[in-house]
């Protein structure tokens, strides 16, 4: 007998749970599903629906005792939260002891691999990046209890060495692999990211929705204010790319620079340009957003001048979030999470704030310790001190499409990419981010999207 933990992201469907339950029934396995969720009201509702769906399927198929817990993904890496009934504690302890002695270590999932070494994985396995496999979290992933026990002891005795958490799925796989002393990821074909209405999904235990979920109408263009951070030396190089690609999709947009150039136009906020970190400029943008100098909007989007972004897709995504809540949305990174650190939105992929979040940030008195401090990390420290969550979306990307596994992007309709290095940014936008202009943005997305929020 082997116990398994299945880590199931909340948005994907689990219509193939019958497979897992029948495995439990036939072999006597005991499986605990852990739903990974987040703190915003939208994700809480998603997780609750997922839990109810799993329990409904389980009760209709078998009398297996199912235990489900919901774990916010803001918690440090490799944290597992379980909820056992009191009368099962003794039995579960027996099962855990038995598994430690008899069961192998299993690490299961849908494997991803890098085509080339990439900065987001610290250029790991540079000679042959494709040799190392890591799980696609969107398909769910699983650990056997003996592996969980060893990892728990390892985390206690040997904390995570990296200060930064950039791509958790890759870093978890590296930690489990343990320089060859631990198990490799074993591919499980039934853990899928196929659309739920696809013929291939018939044999899948997990699927993704065939449409981008919409929580009502996409937010209006007038609800989003866009702030672009630039500087004089990039006015002729990067700003024209924005004007050729996504600027037309934003009604309220301003360029902030160290030089006022009326031909663009750019606005000089009185903050000198810095080579590293732009904290002073970003906090000046936050203050301007709340002033009477700009339209009163519900959402603020801050991007770099080499960020490529789809405003129509962002409008669809924001329909699921309540702007009256302090929402801070983007691609979440972490700093020092195993030592009580904090999460932050990485700036290059785009940082989205509700007006309420900006109000709370500025009212807290939090500020930059220097103009060239890393703005995204300082904001993360501020949010952590205020107890405000950072909400992650895998649709924002700090790097270029080439820096991500093909299979990872295959089931996404991405919202952003970052950096112009060694690419044609206009071509990248047209391939990955431009929608069919013959259809309404939301209609086009609903026909083609295959991703989770």
Automatic annotation (TrEMBL):
Give the record's membrane topology.
Single-pass membrane protein; Single-pass type II membrane protein
A single GO CC term for this protein reads: endomembrane system
Subcellular localization: Endomembrane system; Membrane
Identify the domain of life: Eukaryota
Provide an example Pfam family for this protein.
Answer: Fringe
Q: What is this protein called?
A: Fringe-like glycosyltransferase domain-containing protein
Molecular function in Gene Ontology: glycosyltransferase activity
Primary localization: membrane
Q: Mind giving the lineage of the organism this protein is from?
A: Eukaryota, Metazoa, Chordata, Craniata, Vertebrata
Q: Which family does it belong to?
A: Belongs to the glycosyltransferase 31 family.
Record has ATP-binding as a keyword: no
Domain Fringe-like glycosyltransferase: from-to ranges:
218-424
Q: Which UniProt keywords apply?
A: Glycosyltransferase, Membrane, Signal-anchor, Transferase, Transmembrane, Transmembrane helix
Q: Does the keyword Kinase apply?
A: no
């Amino acid at each position: 007998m082997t116990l398994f933990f299945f880590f199931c992201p909340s948005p994907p469907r689990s219509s193939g749970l019958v497979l897992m339950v029948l495995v439990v029934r036939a072999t006597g396995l005991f499986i605990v599903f852990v739903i990974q969720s987040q703190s915003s009201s939208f994700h809480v509702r998603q997780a609750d629906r997922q839990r109810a769906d799993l329990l409904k399927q389980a009760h209709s198929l078998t009398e297996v005792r199912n235990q489900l817990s919901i774990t916010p993904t803001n918690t440090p890496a490799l944290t597992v939260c379980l909820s056992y009934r009191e009368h099962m504690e003794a039995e579960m302890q027996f099962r855990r002891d038995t598994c430690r002695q008899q069961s192998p270590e299993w690490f299961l999932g849908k494997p991803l691999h890098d085509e080339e070494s990439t900065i987001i994985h610290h250029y790991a396995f540079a000679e042959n990046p494709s040799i190392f496999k890591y799980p696609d979290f969107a398909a769910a992933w699983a650990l056997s209890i003996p592996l969980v026990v060893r990892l728990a002891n390892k985390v206690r005795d040997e904390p995570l060495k990296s200060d930064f958490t950039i791509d958790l799925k890759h870093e978890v796989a590296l930690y489990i692999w343990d320089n060859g002393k631990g198990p490799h990821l074993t591919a499980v074909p039934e853990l899928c990211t196929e659309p739920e209405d696809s013929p291939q999904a018939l044999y899948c235990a997990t699927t993704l929705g065939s449409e981008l979920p919409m929580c009502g109408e996409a937010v209006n263009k007038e609800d989003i204010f866009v702030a672009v951070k630039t500087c004089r030396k990039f006015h002729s190089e990067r700003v024209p790319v924005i004007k050729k690609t996504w600027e037309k999709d934003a009604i309220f947009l301003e360029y902030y620079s160290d030089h006022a150039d009326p031909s663009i136009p750019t606005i000089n906020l009185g903050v000198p340009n810095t080579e590293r970190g732009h904290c002073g400029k970003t906090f000046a943008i936050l203050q301007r957003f709340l002033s009477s100098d700009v339209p009163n909007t519900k959402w603020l989007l801050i991007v770099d001048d080499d960020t490529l972004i789809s405003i129509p897709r962002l409008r669809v995504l924001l329909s699921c979030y309540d702007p009256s809540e302090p929402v801070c949305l983007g691609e979440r990174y972490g700093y020092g999470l195993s030592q009580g650190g904090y999460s932050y939105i990485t700036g290059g992929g785009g940082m989205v704030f509700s007006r309420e979040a900006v109000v709370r940030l500025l009212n807290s008195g939090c500020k930059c310790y220097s103009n060239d401090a890393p703005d995204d990390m300082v904001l993360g420290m501020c949010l952590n001190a205020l107890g405000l969550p950072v909400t992650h979306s895998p649709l924002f990307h700090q790097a270029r499409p080439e820096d991500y596994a093909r299979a990872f992007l295959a089931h996404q309709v991405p919202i952003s990419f970052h950096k112009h290095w060694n690419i044609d940014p206009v071509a990248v936008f047209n391939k990955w981010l431009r929608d069919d202009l013959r259809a309404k943005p939301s209609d086009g997305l609903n026909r083609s999207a295959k991703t989770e929020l």
